[in-house]
Design a protein that fits this description.
Layout lengths: L5 H9 L16 H11 L1 H33 L1
Length: 76
């Protein structure tokens, strides 16, 4: 939560509210950027992605290990 300074709270209580600042110009997001931003905010989706990544990396390690073992036994 953002804390207001004393000047802002006193002005807000008087009823004079300043319009939002529009000094910055932002580029529009692409669909990919918007999807990634929404995906990152979803904690369950991020957890699922980590689990899926662990499974995929483990399987690649097993495939690599089985090739080494097969090559070692075929040379004998």
């Amino acid at each position: 939560m953002l804390k207001r300074s004393l000047n802002q709270t006193s002005e807000a209580s008087k009823g004079s509210v300043s319009p939002p600042s529009t000094n910055f110009v932002s580029q529009p997001e692409t669909l990919t950027q918007e999807a990634w931003r929404k995906f990152r905010r979803n904690r369950q989706a991020m957890f699922g992605m980590v689990i899926l990544l662990i499974i995929v990396l483990r399987d690649f390690q097993r495939i690599n290990h089985s090739k080494k073992t097969r090559d070692r036994f075929s040379q004998e």
